[in-house]
Design a protein that fits this description.
- The chain has a single domain, classed as Aminopeptidase (3-Layer(aba) Sandwich), CATH 3.40.630.30.
- It contains five helices and five strands.
- It has a five-stranded mixed β-sheet, with helices on both faces.
- Helix 3 links the parallel strand 4 and strand 5.
């Protein structure tokens, strides 16, 4: 049986356990298990609106999964990771972590939730949707070979100058209007 403990603050031992879990996942997944903002919230012990969810299975000396919620200015961020040796086909640990995280968000007043999935697969999408979430968008990583051919039109680029701040913030906030980390800056 999997037990999930909700933590409002993370101590040094908690952080070390989650770090060990994320390192194991990163070796297998070739991708950071938590985004930068989530990682900073974790290692700083949590801030207002933070909750960590630690999944354990009795008899094991390590945690088998972790989820984290963080309250942003207008929405919630949710991320999760399951230890590679405890990933099962029905995704029961991941599902339980997500469900507990969503309950906590509801307790804290609810709101819009962004769940980040770094390497989506149909089975993961289906499991997440079974928890009541809808797919919002896909992020693509675009690449091109360099150098750029001489006949390719190039935009004008200049260095950021003092006085650009207000226009830059306005553009950033419009571009990332519904993004929990990149939007709503002041």
């Amino acid at each position: 049986m999997t037990d999930i403990e909700v933590k409002r603050r993370m101590g040094e031992d908690d952080i070390a356990e989650v770090a060990s879990l994320t390192h194991a996942a990163e070796k297998v997944d070739n991708h950071p298990a938590l985004g930068e903002h989530a990682w900073l919230d974790l290692v700083l012990g949590g801030r207002h609106g933070f909750a960590g969810f630690v999944a354990r299975r009795s008899g094991l000396g390590h945690i088998i999964g972790y989820a984290q919620v963080t309250k942003g200015p207008t929405s919630w961020g949710l991320e999760f990771v399951v230890h590679p040796s405890h990933r099962d086909s029905d995704m029961s640990t991941a599902r339980a972590l997500i469900q507990e995280a969503l309950k906590e968000i509801e307790i804290q007043g609810g709101g819009h939730v962004h769940l980040w999935v770094s390497k989506p697969q149909l089975s993961v999408d289906e499991m997440i949707m079974s928890c009541g979430l809808e797919k919002g968008r896909d992020l693509l990583q675009m690449r091109r070979p360099l150098p750029i051919e001489d006949d390719t039109p190039r935009p004008k680029v200049r260095h950021f100058k003092n006085g650009d701040e207000a226009q830059w913030l306005d553009l950033n906030n419009r571009a990332f209007k519904n993004h929990p980390e990149q939007g709503n800056w002041d």
